[in-house]
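Dig into what follows:

_____
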Amino acid sequence: MTLTLLTEAELLAQPADDYMNDDQQQFFRALLLSQRAELQARIAEEFEALREREISSDPADIGSAEEQRQWQLRLLEREKKLLDKIDEALDRLARDEYGWCLETAEAIGLRRLLLRPTASLCIEAKERQEQREKHLRHTDGA
C-alpha cells in the first residue's frame, strides 16, 4: 500500500466536513516528521560545531568565542523546545486529538496548522493566552 499525500492546495480544497480525516492527518504527520528530521540534523550540526571549537590563548578571542558559544547554546535550547513541541503534536496525532484546540475543543483550522504545525490552540484561545501572559508581565513588574 503506497501512501499518496495531499498537496497543500488539495488539503485546503477539501470540504470543511472532512476536517482531520485520514488524508489530512497523514499530510500533517509527514510534515511534522519532515520538520523533526530537519531539526534533529541542525541540532546535531550545532553540537558538532560546539565540540570542534578551538581554544585560543588570546583574551579577546576567548571572550568572542564564549559569546558565540552562549549564542549557540541559546539556539540549541530553542530548537530543543521546538523538537518537544513537534513530538507533542505527533502524540496528539496518534491520539486523534491533533487539529483540535486544547482549550475549546474547536477546530484549529488548516491554514493555521500549515503556518504552525505544532499549534495546540485555536487563534482565539491563543490570543487569550497571550493577553493573560501580557497582563501577568505587567503585574509582576509593578
